[in-house]
Design brief:
The complex is a heterodimer. By secondary structure, chain A is mostly helical. Chain A is 44% helix and 10% strand. Chain A has two domains: 5-161 and 219-272, 3-Layer(aba) Sandwich (D-Maltodextrin-Binding Protein, domain 2); 173-215, no CATH class. Chain B contains 17 helices and 15 strands. Chain B has helices at 32-58, 62-80, 85-112, 124-134, 207-212, 214-219, 290-297, 299-333, 342-354, 357-367, 374-379, 389-418, 421-429, 434-462, 465-469, 490-499, 506-535, and strands spanning 136-138, 144-152, 159-165, 172-176, 179-182, 188-190, 196-199, 203-204, 222-223, 228-231, 236-242, 244-247, 252-255, 261-265, 270-272. Classes of the chains: A mainly alpha, B alpha+beta.
Chain lengths: 273, 538
């Protein structure tokens, strides 16, 4: 199971921030004292990244797809372009390059980790796949949920789960199906996989066991289950990534949120049809 | 002239020697190394032919087998024959040309006329099976049985039978093509969970034997009055019924519960209902010229197509021009014999050529990073390189210049050294100024040698996907048209259109590829005609 959490250098910032504004204030304080050079390593990139910005987007009031009564996502209810999405992006724009300078397009998923491990910033927004790399450094760090805007809605990161598909034309289909249905769901297998790849297992029994030796894994799981939003995997979602990302990059760069997000909404709606 | 000395076959056999016959040395190869080389090469051809024959026979692909036999026979005939000297030189190149150029081009052309892509990958049969398979639901209230796979008789060829146990009551059943029947307790032995370990009249399959019968097991089902019992893996079976099934009479999919129908739309490859919505599983159909028409008439594509085409030409010409200019300049500077350290300079210049281009492009991309990049730090500037179109174009051209000028340097060095020195000396004696001598004598001779390479470099850079995509990803994107960026060339634009938004659309991408191919082919033909004209100078 993957979600986005806040990694915090406990030497520089001993307490977990309760709101995003608290985190920005702490970051500015550290920057003024000369201890860090960036407030937070929040990846944006030249073409944006809707996956990483979603916690702030939902905290600001926006949503990507509405849900039907049975819980499925509704491709006909696109949230991008609606007034709530514009409001959310106005808050994001205030943090951008022409605003407080917290969000920058020059911070990408490629250089965010080296900023955090090189102690150039005290905060990193990333996911549990960083555990493997963090174990190799000597940093003291802690995990907490991505803080929401003060007075805003809870920040909801996208939750994704790795799954196995059995190929319909596979040569060993029966064996593959047997493995997936009867073996992969066993806790021993999840624990063995955790040893090789320290991610957060989706199996509750496995998480309960791993939590005892690796409490941070438990924290990531809790952050996900408390506020996470299952990432929409309906076919219409494929049309969202590129236009929304580029709109996000433009807004972070200083473009007007209202016209940019409305245009992005139109481009996405045209592609979904 | 002694006509008896002129022989009608083209081998140079001296009069008095035995006439050449079909064989290894028949074309005059007499050195042992040459003969051994020929044996090894022909041996490899024969080995490949034998290796390729088995899967073809296995799949009963007789046409493929015939082609394989013909090509192998042709290769052997040409290389063992005393005549056909030109063919000996042309056959390898022609074979590779056909396999790696002509066949892919033909395949791309044929794909462009279909709608091959996501949701349209298989045949209609596959789509129907996928729809029915995905709609199978467990019959409400039915049991999930513990399964032991068995056959009546020989494990490799006997009829499949499901030996089922109800986990609640531990009762044993046997499921065959005729239906479900109870097994008397005396006939079976069951393990602690109730799973059947032995049954008289049936052979229980081991894991290996079951895997060998995978196809038959997935196709097998035990008919019941509410649906059918199918296996789920090797140790579970459930009773399910498909909610949607295909009706041949109306060529449509019918939903059992709601009665809705989706009719097959054979021109689009989808099952569509009356509201115009379609099922996710579709099939590949021939759409004729629709992909080509889309490229020409779709508004989003048309609005940016011209701008992208112009920049594509400018980029290719710019890269060729800049790399050629710098490469020629450096070649001329380093061409002096008396220059000390010539070898050292040459090695340093060629060094970037030895590094993997993809890695270098990523390094350059990070060097252009606004806040953390090397270039801004060195210059003390805060230029947003990939934020504006002009600076992105500059960045992309700079990277290609760094990557490509050393190739031109190598080529120009060779070409300059092949121009006879007495020509320029004669010009000097005649009193020509150095630049005039260069322009009228050296440069045209240089172009004859280098001309085809410039055309090849143009064709390569016209489709330089990695050069644009890895460095600027297509450049700054205006918010109202996120598909077409400032430094997008046709191929990156195609890639984003075909594989970005609504999943992969190979048919559409193939159509645009053909447009690009035609553009490049026309420019190359014109270019080659011009270099032919240059040869008349000599």
């Amino acid at each position: 199971m993957n979600n986005i959490v806040l990694f915090r250098n406990t030497d520089l910032a001993p307490e977990a921030p309760k709101t995003f504004e608290d985190m920005v204030a702490k970051g500015k304080e550290l920057k003024a004292a000369g201890k860090v050079s960036e407030i937070v390593a929040y990846p944006v990139g030249p073409v944006g990244d809707p996956y990483y910005i979603n916690p702030l987007y939902t905290s600001g009031g926006g949503y990507v797809f509405g849900t039907l009564p049975n819980g499925d996502y509704n491709p006909k209810d696109l949230g991008v372009g609606k007034p709530e999405s514009v409001q959310a992006y106005q808050k994001i724009s205030a943090l951008g390059e022409k605003g407080q300078g917290v969000l920058k397009r020059s911070i990408t998923t490629d250089n965010m980790f080296s900023l955090f491990s090189g102690k150039k910033t005290a905060f990193l927004i990333s996911g549990p796949w960083q555990f493997a790399d963090l174990k190799k450094t000597s940093l003291k760090y802690d995990v907490s949920p991505v803080p929401q805007f003060a007075g805003g809605k809870p920040a909801q990161p996208f939750i994704t789960v790795d799954a196995a598909y059995v190929a319909s034309k596979g040569k060993n289909k029966a064996l593959a199906q047997e493995f997936v249905t009867n073996y992969w769901s066993r806790p021993e297998v999840a624990l063995a996989m955790f040893k090789v790849n320290p991610n957060v297992p989706a199996l509750k029994a496995a998480v309960a066991q791993i939590k005892q030796t690796d409490p941070l894994v438990g924290k990531v799981a809790e952050a996900g289950t408390a506020n996470g939003q299952i990432m929409p995997s309906i076919p219409a979602m494929a049309a969202v990534w590129s236009p929304l990302g580029k709109a996000e990059a433009a807004v972070v760069g200083g473009a007007d949120p209202s016209s940019t997000i409305t245009a992005a909404g139109k481009a996405i709606a045209a592609q979904i049809k | 002239m002694a006509h008896s000395e002129v022989l009608d076959d083209r081998t140079s056999v001296q009069p008095g020697r035995k006439p050449p016959r079909f064989g290894l040395g028949a074309d005059g190869t007499s050195s042992p190394a040459g003969l051994i080389g020929k044996i090894v090469a022909l041996g490899i051809v024969a080995a490949i032919a034998v290796w390729a024959a088995f899967p073809l026979i296995d799949k009963k692909n007789w046409i493929g087998l015939a082609i394989l036999v013909l090509v192998t026979a042709l290769v052997f005939y040409v290389y063992l024959s005393p005549r056909l000297i030109p063919a000996k030189y042309l056959i390898p190149g022609t074979l590779f040309l056909i396999v790696f150029q002509i066949i892919p081009v033909l395949y791309t052309i044929s794909t462009a006329f279909t709608n091959f892509g996501d949701a349209h990958r298989g045949s209609k049969q596959d789509a129907v099976q996928a729809v029915e398979g995905a709609s199978v639901k467990q019959v409400p209230g039915s049991t999930v049985y513990t399964l032991s796979l068995a056959t009546e008789g020989d494990p490799a060829s006997g009829d499949i039978a499901f030996l089922l146990t109800d986990p609640a009551t531990k009762k044993a059943f046997v499921g065959t093509a005729d239906g479900l029947a109870e097994l008397p307790a005396g006939d079976v032995q069951q393990g602690p969970t109730g799973k059947i370990t032995q049954a008289s009249g049936y052979t229980i399959l081991t894991v290996g034997q079951a895997n060998a019968r995978t196809q038959d097991i997935s196709a097998f089902s035990v008919p019941t009055d509410k649906g059918a019992i199918k296996s789920q893996g090797l140790s579970r079976a459930f009773e399910g019924s498909p909610q949607q099934s295909y009706d041949e009479g109306c060529d449509c999919i019918k939903d059992v519960a709601t009665g809705k129908t989706w009719t097959a739309d054979n021109s689009n490859g989808f099952f569509v209902n009356s509201a115009g919505e379609n099922l996710a599983q579709g099939w590949q159909v021939n759409v004729g010229l629709r992909n080509f028409a889309d490229v020409l008439t779709n508004d989003t594509i048309r609005s940016s197509f011209l701008r992208i085409l112009v920049w594509n030409f400018a980029f290719a010409i710019g890269v060729v021009g800049l790399t050629f200019a710098l490469g020629l300049l450096v070649a001329m500077v380093l061409n002096k014999e008396e220059l000390r350290g010539q070898r050292l300079y040459r090695s340093l210049i060629i060094l970037p050529y030895a590094m993997p281009a993809v890695a270098m492009m990523l390094v350059w991309r990070d060097m252009f990073n606004t806040d953390f990049g090397l270039i801004n730090r060195l210059l003390g500037a805060n230029i947003n390189w990939f934020g504006t179109t002009a600076s992105s174009m500059f960045a992309v051209l700079l990277v290609q210049l760094w990557l490509g000028y050393n190739y031109m340097f190598l080529v120009c060095t060779g070409a300059l050294q092949s121009i006879p020195a007495d020509l320029s000396e004669a010009a000097q004696v005649d009193g020509a100024k150095p630049f005039h001598a260069f322009r009228t004598i050296t440069f045209p001779l240089l172009l004859i040698a280098v001309g085809p390479l410039l055309i090849a470099s143009f064709a390569y850079n016209f489709n330089n996907f990695t050069g644009i995509f890895l460095v600027s990803e297509g450049g700054p994107f205006p918010p109202d048209n996120p598909q077409a960026g400032g430094t997008d060339i046709l191929i990156t634009y195609t890639y984003r259109l075909a594989f970005g938004g609504a999943g992969a659309q190979y048919g559409f991408a193939a159509a645009i590829s053909i447009f690009i191919f035609l553009i490049v082919a026309i420019v190359s033909i014109i270019g080659f005609r011009r270099t032919h004209a240059l040869e008349e100078i000599n």
